[in-house]
Amino acid sequence: MIFVSIRADIRPEKREDWLAGVVRYSNEVRSEPGNLTFSCYESVERANEFAILASYADDDAGAAHVASEHAQWFFGWLPSVVVEVPKIVYQELPGDGWSPMGEVKMD
């Protein structure tokens, strides 16, 4: 599984553009074969700081995503709404998705 985390600081005056664009992009990414998860979250501590969490079945699915028309649009569009180049963590992990948190026990 490929796991990707992206942190982006959005220009306050571009917030509405960002929200509309990331919703559009999210829907397109989630429909890709090989996409396991795609979610976008806003920080509760820093306004206009967003995190994207995505996972893909394997390297081929990740490469297909990067080559897709909607990903190329997103990469080209991002500079119009961000304060600086977003930060990314890209890792190949064992397994095929989220696992239960072992430290938490449910009754």
Automatic annotation (TrEMBL):
It holds the Pfam family ABM. One of its GO terms (molecular function) is monooxygenase activity. Keywords: Monooxygenase, Oxidoreductase. Residues 2-90 form the ABM domain. This is Quinol monooxygenase YgiN. InterPro entries: ABM_dom, Dimeric_a/b-barrel. The keyword Hydrolase does not apply.
